[in-house]
Amino acid sequence: MLSIIVAISQNNCIGKNNALPWDIPEDLKHFKDITNGHAVLMGQNTWESIPEKFRPLPNRKNIVVTREKDYKVPENVEVYNSLDEALEKYKTQDLFVVGGASIYAQTITKANKLFITEVHQFVDGDTFFPEIDKNVWQEARREDCNGFSFVQYSHK
Ligand SMILES: NC(=O)c1ccc[n+]([C@@H]2O[C@H](COP(=O)([O-])OP(=O)(O)OC[C@H]3O[C@@H](n4cnc5c(N)ncnc54)[C@H](OP(=O)(O)O)[C@@H]3O)[C@@H](O)[C@H]2O)c1
């Protein structure tokens, strides 16, 4: 099962200056709860956006994709020079794509499930999530909270 997990503003923004453009502790907890115990796959920028003291994300197999050869990561973190190779290796396991924009864009057509946090803000950022094609995806679950909503999409 390949899932995408992401927080998106009302204008589709997900990042600014290689960081999250908001501070929503409830969303970080949600992210932790959903991904706990599973493999998480991310691009090099997203890996580097996580403060060193918080990475690798604990209790999860951290997988980083970069085209850089000999990219150095801590022990227990896996690096792939090819996204397809990483997806192939984890195709029989639960794998969560955790960003960023370039990795979301390359995996949204391959994913089985989307975990979207809708952030009820318009944000002046530089990184955006691809369109969620409503011909392909349907809302399966929604929890509205104060300032954000947790929404799950599955295939129609
Ligand atoms: N709102 C959210 O939920 C959320 C979640 C995660 C991230 N973000 C935000 O997203 C932004 C980062 O997104 P981004 O698009 O700039 O970067 P990214 O997707 O995290 O990483 C991009 C890098 O991944 C590597 N890569 C991409 N495709 C590859 C492939 N097919 N094979 C091998 N390596 C590949 C390349 O690394 P090399 O250049 O090293 O080759 C590329 O430069 C940040 O602002 C971050 O805060 C937001």
Automatic annotation (TrEMBL):
According to the entry, every stretch annotated as the DHFR domain falls at 1-156
Question: What catalytic activity is recorded?
Answer: (6S)-5,6,7,8-tetrahydrofolate + NADP(+) = 7,8-dihydrofolate + NADPH + H(+)
CC per GO annotation:
cytosol
The family classification in the record reads:
Belongs to the dihydrofolate reductase family.
The processes (GO biological process) annotated in the record are: dihydrofolate metabolic process; folic acid metabolic process; one-carbon metabolic process; tetrahydrofolate biosynthetic process
Q: Answer yes or no on keyword Magnesium.
A: no
Class of the enzyme per the UniProt entry, highest EC level: oxidoreductase
Task: From the Swiss-Prot or TrEMBL record, give the protein name.
Answer: Dihydrofolate reductase
* Involved pathway(s): Cofactor biosynthesis; tetrahydrofolate biosynthesis; 5,6,7,8-tetrahydrofolate from 7,8-dihydrofolate: step 1/1
InterPro entries assigned? DHFR (IPR012259), DHFR-like_dom_sf (IPR024072), DHFR_CS (IPR017925), DHFR_dom (IPR001796)
EC number of the protein = 1.5.1.3
Which organism is this entry from? Candidatus Magasanikbacteria bacterium CG1_02_32_51
Gene3D superfamilies given in the database record: Dihydrofolate Reductase, subunit A
Functionally, this protein is described as follows: Key enzyme in folate metabolism. Catalyzes an essential reaction for de novo glycine and purine synthesis, and for DNA precursor synthesis.
Task: Give the signal peptide, or none.
Answer: none
Keyword list (alphabetical) reads:
NADP, One-carbon metabolism, Oxidoreductase
Q: Which GO terms describe its molecular function?
A: dihydrofolate reductase activity; NADP+ binding
PROSITE patterns hit by this protein: DHFR_1 (PS00075), DHFR_2 (PS51330)
Q: Which PANTHER family match?
A: DIHYDROFOLATE REDUCTASE (PTHR48069:SF3)
